[in-house]
Specification:
This protein is of the alpha+beta class. Helix content is about 50%, strand content about 10%. It has a six-stranded antiparallel sheet with strand order 1-6-2-3-4-5.
Length: about 300
């Protein structure tokens, strides 16, 4: 029975890797995002129903709050996908009298436009469709639909996502605001962990699929996977002064520490390190422990994307 269950989980691609803290943050973010869209849009427009908020914003909320680091969630995908799809949808409504044909064209052309503009954002398809089959209230807006509610809704959910995700040290939106990179710039092309992005891009082209990761993400993923396979756990002599390390925990336990001092001992097992917490749990605090204890705590080394004074 257990084997059947495992096969079913694999068949349905059920992912159980997300922590409870991540699930709670996503849920809260979705609530706040849609609440603010409704409240602020009503304050500025006084509209109601679909003229107040585009239903597809619910799907956008799932992306920016549940998958804030995903390729399809990033700002260009969000703004470009929503606005270009809205333009396509309104144009199809005006130019194609048959509602069935207009509906198909709206979604199909929205997808094609997003591909061309490199801003694929799945909720855009619903935004385009709503412009065709929406209520008389939406049709009366004409091309104003692109500005209100689509653009207004998009600005609100973007600002909310940036602010909300900043409260959780392990997540940022957009992903470019992440302070630490998991791996350094790949300058050593002789490293066994280095896979040139050209080859990754060629592999993606061979597969010919749209995935929610770019070549940079995959390069980091491959490098980290190989690093874990080659060095499954830190040893005491790998902990270096001035370097940054994380425990890779999720939620409230996530932390990043920098080694700021060290004290050698005649007995290597008693070598001490002093660290400060620069991100996550215990932020700005400092403490000490043996180098071996720190190595047991650390899961991987991090590399700052910029210095604190930059």
């Amino acid at each position: 029975m257990n084997q059947i269950f495992k096969k079913l989980v694999r068949l349905l691609s059920i992912d159980s890797s997300v922590s409870s803290a991540e699930k709670l943050a996503s849920t809260l973010g979705g609530f706040i995002g849609i609440f603010l869209i409704s409240s602020i849009s009503f304050h500025f427009t006084g509209a109601s129903g679909a003229a107040l908020i585009v239903p597809s914003m619910g799907a956008s909320a799932v992306l920016v709050f549940a998958v804030p680091h995903g390729k399809l969630s990033q700002p260009w995908a969000l703004f470009g996908g929503q606005l270009s799809s809205a333009l396509v949808g309104v144009s199809c409504y005006y130019l194609v009298p048959n509602v069935f044909l207009a509906s198909g064209l709206a979604v199909g052309l929205a997808i094609g436009t997003m591909h061309i503009l490199r801003c694929v954002h799945p909720p855009g398809g619903a935004t385009a469709l709503a412009a065709v089959i929406g209520s008389a209230q939406i049709h009366a807006l004409g091309y104003g639909y692109v500005l209100t509610p689509v653009f207004l809704n998009t600005v609100i959910i973007f600002v909310t996502a940036v602010a909300f995700n900043s409260f959780f040290p392990w997540r940022r939106y957009p992903v470019s605001l992440m302070r630490f990179a998991d791996v350094p710039a790949f300058e050593d092309k002789t490293s066994s962990r280095f896979i040139d992005k050209r080859y990754i891009e060629r592999a993606l082209a061979d597969i010919d699929l749209v995935i929610d990761l770019n070549a940079d993400d995959l390069q980091r993923l491959f490098a980290l996977a190989l690093e874990h396979a080659e060095t499954p756990k830190f040893t005491a002599d790998q902990i270096k002064l001035g370097h940054y390390y994380t425990n890779s925990k999720h939620g409230a336990e996530w932390s990043v520490r920098q080694i700021i001092d060290e004290a050698a001992s005649d007995d290597p097992k008693k070598d001490m390190v002093i660290y400060r917490v620069v991100e996550g749990h215990g932020l700005k605090s400092a403490d000490s422990c043996t180098r071996s204890e720190f190595a047991d705590w650390a899961d991987r080394e991090l590399f700052p994307t910029h210095t604190e004074n930059s």
